[in-house]
Amino acid sequence: MRINPNKCVACGNCTYVCPMGAIYIDPVIKRATINREECVECYACYNGLSQEHLNPTMVRTMRKVFQMMRLRFDPEPDVCPTAAFEPDELTWPRVVRRAFSDPRVPHESTGVQGRGTEEVKTNDVSGRVKVGEVGFTIEFGRPGVGVRFHEIEKMSMTLAKRGVSFEKKNPVTSLMTDTATGKIREDILNEKVLSAILEIKTTVDRTEEIIRAVWEVEKQIDTVVSIGVGTRCDENGEEHVVAPVLEKLGYSLERAKTNIGLGKISNEPAPADQKQEPAGAAR
Ligand code: SF4
Ligand code: SF4
Fold it and tell me: Which of 46, 152, 187, 275 maximizes the CB count within 10 A of its CB?
C-alpha cells in the first residue's frame, strides 16, 4: 500500500485504522507515510475509510486558513478526504502479506479466506483429528502484533523435530519446502503478516510435551502465540484424556463450543476400530 503525497492532506485519519501502526505523519514532508517494512497489506486503510475526492490544494488551503483563525478543519473520522491511498501491484514475495492479512482474499493453496484454514471446525467431515489424536492450532500475531515467517519457522522446526505431522490443507504448510523439518521457503522468511496458524497433530499422550515445546519457542520470538487444542469426545460428548493434561498445565477449561458435523464425509473411511465412535466434537 502507498499514500500519494500529492494527494494526502495530513489529516491523520488513517493513522488510527492501521492495525500494525504502520502509518505515521512524516514531520519533514508533512504527509501521511507508510512504513513498508511493517505494513502487512491488509487493506484496512484502503477499504476501511470512505474515499472522498476533494481537491487536495483546496483542502490544504482551507486547513491553513482555519488554523490562522485558531479553528480546525478536519474531515469526518472515517474518511480519507482526497482518496490518497494507492494499492501496489503486489508481486512475490510481498503478495504473501496480503494473502495472510486481508480477510477478503482467499488463500490460493486452500481456497479458504481469512487465515486460510477451517481448523478443526469441520472435523467430522474432514477427519483431521481422529480418535486417539490431538490437533493443535498455533496462532501467531493476533491481536494487532503481526508475525514474520522466520518466527513461525522457529516454531515449525522445533515441532517437526518432535515428529508431529503438519496439516496439508493449511497455507503455512503449503509454504514449507520440507514438512519433515518444518523449513519454510527462504524467500518469504522476512515477510510480515497480520496473523497465521500452524496446524499439527500428534497422539494424545504427547499433549503435554507439545505444549511445553510451544511455550519454550514462544519465549524466543517477538509475537503473540495462542494455542488451540482439538480432540474428540466420547460417546457421552465428554473428553477425559486431554482435558486433565491441560488443567495440570494451568489452563482453566470452559466448554466454549462443540462442532457437530452435518456435512457429507469425504475423507477416507476410518479404520475398523474407530468406526463405532459417534460423531465427535472438537473441544
Ligand atoms: S486519511 Fe488520507 S488525507 Fe488523511 S492523512 Fe491519511 S492519507 Fe492523508
Ligand atoms: S495495508 Fe494495512 S498494514 Fe498496510 S498501511 Fe494499510 S492498514 Fe496499515
Answer: 152
42 lines ligand 2 (CB under 6 A): yes
Q: What is the pLDDT of residues 74-116, one digit of tens each?
A: 788 899 999 999 999 999 999 999 999 998 887 665 555 556 6
The domains found in the chain, sorted by start residue, are 2-86 (3.30.70.20), 107-274 (no CATH)
- Nearest ligand to the CA of 194 is 2
How many Cα atoms are found within 13 Å in the side-chain-facing hemisphere of 269? 5
Give me ligand 1 centre to Cα 15, in Å: 8
Nearest CA to ligand 2 atom 8: 18
- Write the Ramachandran bin of 237: left for phi over 0, alpha for psi from -120 to 50, otherwise beta: left
User: What residue type is assigned to position 37 of the chain?
Assistant: E
Beta carbon of 45 within 6 Å of any ligand 2 atom: yes
Give me the residues of the chain with pLDDT under 70, please: 107-120, 256-261, 263, 265-283
The helix (H) or strand (E) run that includes residue 218 is: helix 207-218
The C-alpha atoms of residue 18 and residue 10 are separated, in whole angstroms, by 15
Tell me how many degrees the CA angle 196-259-134 measures, rounded to the nearest 5: 60
